[in-house]
Amino acid sequence: MITALKRLLVGSPMATAQAKQERLAKIPALAIFASDLMSSVAYGPEEILLVLVLGGTVALQFAPAIAVSIAVLAAIVATSYWQIIHAYPSGGGAYIVASDNLGTLPGLSAGAALLVDYVLTVSVSTASGVAAITSAFPALYPHRVGICVGCVLLIMLANLRGIRETGRIFAIPTYWFILCMALLIVAGFYRWMTQGPPPPPATVAVVEPLSVLLILRAFSGGCASLTGTEAVANGVQYFQPPESRNAGITLIWMATILAASVVGVTFVAHLYHIVPQPEETVVSMLGRQLFGRTWIYYMTQAATAVILLLAINTSLAGFPMLASIMAKDGFLPRQLAHLGDRLVYSNGIIICAVVSCLLLVIFQGSTHALIPLYAIGVFGAFTLSQAGMVLHWSRERGPRWRLHAVVNAAGAVTTAVVVSVVAVSKFVHGAWIVVILIPLMVLGFLSVRRHYDTLRGQLTLRGFVPPKIGRHPVVLLVGGLHRGVVTALTYARAISPNITAITVDLEPTATARLQQQWQEWAPDVPLVVLDSPYRSVMQPVLHYVDQMEKQRDGDYMTIILPEFVPARWWQHLLHNQTALLLKTALLFRKGKVAISIPYHLDR
Amino acid sequence: MITALKRLLVGSPMATAQAKQERLAKIPALAIFASDLMSSVAYGPEEILLVLVLGGTVALQFAPAIAVSIAVLAAIVATSYWQIIHAYPSGGGAYIVASDNLGTLPGLSAGAALLVDYVLTVSVSTASGVAAITSAFPALYPHRVGICVGCVLLIMLANLRGIRETGRIFAIPTYWFILCMALLIVAGFYRWMTQGPPPPPATVAVVEPLSVLLILRAFSGGCASLTGTEAVANGVQYFQPPESRNAGITLIWMATILAASVVGVTFVAHLYHIVPQPEETVVSMLGRQLFGRTWIYYMTQAATAVILLLAINTSLAGFPMLASIMAKDGFLPRQLAHLGDRLVYSNGIIICAVVSCLLLVIFQGSTHALIPLYAIGVFGAFTLSQAGMVLHWSRERGPRWRLHAVVNAAGAVTTAVVVSVVAVSKFVHGAWIVVILIPLMVLGFLSVRRHYDTLRGQLTLRGFVPPKIGRHPVVLLVGGLHRGVVTALTYARAISPNITAITVDLEPTATARLQQQWQEWAPDVPLVVLDSPYRSVMQPVLHYVDQMEKQRDGDYMTIILPEFVPARWWQHLLHNQTALLLKTALLFRKGKVAISIPYHLDR
Asked: Mean pLDDT of residues grouped by 10 in chain A (603 residues)?
């Protein structure tokens, strides 16, 4: 039944041989990887304005300049990544590039930062998308957390079905959103030119004096627009061959559209004196002002909501991909490197979705609390990978290596400056969590790796003396005398001549009757009666087994547990789970083998 | 570690021989069994007023009359139960009396009604107790659900420690509450006599015309005061010998105090024109009017809160007691009849507490939604047990049997009328849920009983032919060649000469290497390679085992799974749980024995 449900939700299993087909042309690839980057247009400009508004009307004048500087930053980052994609055609995220060139610790730091970032992107995008919906329909506001979680789970299912199908699902909304943003910007400029500037703004009260720190914090907020660049570099192998070329072109397209949109939206918001409000998003206010509550406004809101909700797809594709690479290197549990039966890394997808849902529930679907958390991770990873590339070029010394190195060095310096700015200006606003979390994660990765490393040594056959089984003592646990017990006894006789039966005395009359019956059925097998003053079955049995340990011959001892298997699931509730508990307890005692002999009931 | 925590919370285990000591003198017994009955003084009068207020000022005049009729009802029910306690000295709740005299179905109906009632009492008492706290301290209102759940879990722990200790814990607050109610009533009458009547009330608007149905609904609400009477009859064996006499006297005390309090509180509320409000309880309003916000008011509120919170103890003692009786009769899972290591029915206590907490969370700590649900169950059970007693007396024909029969018949008729009144007047207010739930529970009880009945037949040794083990095929699952696998192979050789090794081909190069190594280590054991197009280990293994089934010799086949046991708990996360999943799947296939051979890692 569970299998049937799984098939219905994620589709039939796919053979390993089908793997090569799951590649993406540029058009759907742009849709998949662009949704994260593009969608940040919905909250990037807003984060800039939200900080600036604290400085009052004068501070808000800086918004266009900050938007332009973020566009320049996008150009630098994209150029650097374009080089990385070509240097690492098999997929080179910050983790691989930093590990390769700077060593394990920087690589793991970059990996940790990106894993955190993917999860946060899912949460922030979902929260923002639902904010776009509740801006248009305030009645839905009380249900926002439920809507958030439902959306994440839906996109998780789409991802579990496989990446190509999700590409197809997502192409239309992504292009629709780009169109809407273009429309918004063009309409804004056009109306401004034809109808002249809108009435002068109401003065905004000053909460905090205008300072360099305020401007820097606004810039840090706007940097959230750049998350998602990494996903393309990690996902190069999803592209159709030639992978690097296709991925590189996609990246440049994406960065260009992004920069144009961020600058455009911020400019138009500036022209129309938009002041951010807690109840409504900046894009919604802008749309209302330009189009009124017409179908164009609702279409824009819908596109914004849909792209934000789909943006979580980037991370749900990026997180498992990176986790699988780190798992193959032994820094994460191996299960994350297993392709699921739909040829996707199902475990990684599920973990990312579940953690994001938890964050959404804990933060009650609020965007702004999470945004400071992740800019630092993103730009930290950028810096590490750019720095790694500088070393890469200077080692390889291929044609034009100096130019390449200079480009990446410029990227590294720029993003390092951004990290410092974010870390300093947003430290008390939540950046400190990331500063603590990333080293902890790196320690975790190292422990996992150490376990796998020592595992090989512990399991090697070199110098290994196989255990002696010897006279092979077998202990048979008897409750009462019935078909299940006789079956188990028959099995015990088949595997050893050295059998002892034990029973726990819970009720003296029942025990006396059992002893008498036992004499008739199995006079050759001794029956030991164990006392149980506290009415427990577990304790006396474990105690007896530990006692036997001292006098046994050979390295292994077997405990046989007769177990009947009910015909229907609910009947399990009507029987003690003592066998299961005993098996679990015995698993942790050396040299014990616990065997359940099932006896199947008919009804 | 878990064991240590359990010891800390519930105390050291107690031997079976200590059981007799756990008996109660009348004074602590009154405290335990009275807390439920007495505590309903806090919400019984309020439920009467809450309905009457819909009929406006005129309807509120009926409150004292309704209170008196409930006192009369209490006298009738108590007298009937006093007879039951003497006729069933080993403990005779409605379930036993109805089963004994009316047959299985009425007995099970009574049992179902009481189990539901116990759970609801826990929820309602907790919600009411927390309402008393939030009446005094409105700031705590937003945290009410958390406080409710915390309280239930705390009392659950007290009960898991054992009944005598809980008796001692609860004696003081119960008597303190009785004192507070007496003080409230006496102060009310005294002030009314010395200072004359308070100013005439503001007119209350009429929401619903005054009708017989409205009066009946108010009476139904007030009937909630009588829940808890049953607990004494079920718990007779908790009393010190002579059990029946002590239990009977306790019951009469309880009923008298209850009737006096309900009538007193309702009268005083009537004198002072108290109109129920959603934000404050009637007792709180009364206390404030009589004492002001002085320490006497706060003491009364505290006593009310404490007794209501302790009332859940009655149910947490009553539910497991009844569940254990029904489990011994085979109508509920046997685990409910097992005495825990503190000589209490721990499983029943935990189930009752957990379900109540769920109700509290679902209903967000609101009392009134739950009250209509349980009056019908309580009075249905009363009716069934009284009717059973009438038959009991007419069969036994002991001295004065006619008098006894008449008393119980009067009780049966009265409570039957109450059931009809509640069912009709509260049907749409939630009574329908109980009307559906109880038959479903009875069906469940019958299925459980049928399972246990057929179990004996399925397990009988009469005519049983023990299975053949024959050449005993053993299948060894091999992933790679390491110490764990060699250990498992050694074990396999010890239990059978007929071994086949199988491996699932997940990666062709690893498989080829394994085949080569296998030739060196175990050339005598054939190694079968299974294809896995969908990268699953489970499916090919299960398919192979099912194929083998057809050609095997003997009735049982063994599958050996080498499993290494990590040294630390978190390392389990770093390995596949394939062995566990395979063992679970194999358990449900007939004639398969799955054995894990543990190999313990050192670090």
From this structure: 69 66 65 76 87 86 91 90 83 81 91 90 88 86 87 87 63 84 91 82 78 86 82 73 82 89 91 82 88 89 86 81 90 86 82 91 76 80 89 86 88 88 80 86 93 86 81 89 90 90 90 91 92 85 86 80 85 80 85 89 80
Structure tokens at B430: 């939630």
Which residues are CB-neighbours of A181 under 8 A, at least 6 positions away?
A: A41, A261, A264, A265
**How distant is the Cα of B593 from the closest Cα of chain A, in angstroms?**
6
> Which of 3.40.50, 3.30.230, 3.30.1370, 1.10.3470 is the CATH number of B474-600?
3.40.50
**What ipTM does this complex have?**
0.78
Q: Three-state SS string across B390-441, please? A: HHHHHHHCCCCHHHHHHHHHHHHHHHHHHHHHHHHHHHHHCHHHHHHHHHHH
Q: What's the gap in Å between the CA of B243 and the closest CA on chain A?
A: 25
Answer whether B495 sits within 8 Å of A494, measured CB to CB.
yes
Please report, to the nearest 10 degrees, the dihedral formed by the alpha carbons of residues A505, A511, A516, A522 taken in order.
-50
Which CATH number is B31-448's, of 1.10.150.240, 2.60.40.2470, 3.40.50.620, 1.20.1740.10? 1.20.1740.10
* CB atoms A466 and B341 under 8 Å: no
Joined together, the tokens standing for residue A299 give 């279409």
- Cβ–Cβ under 8 Å, residues B110 and B381: yes
CB contact under 8 A, B536 and A341: yes
Domain boundaries, chain B: 31-448, 474-600
Q: Determine the distance in angstroms separating the CA of A334 from the nearest CA of chain B, rounded to an integer.
A: 6
Q: What is the DSSP letter of B42?
A: G
> What CATH number belongs to A23-451?
1.20.1740.10
Q: CA–CA distance from B221 to each of B43, B218, B380 (Å)? A: 9, 5, 15
Which residue among A335, A467, A472 sits closest to B487, beta carbon to beta carbon?
Answer: A467
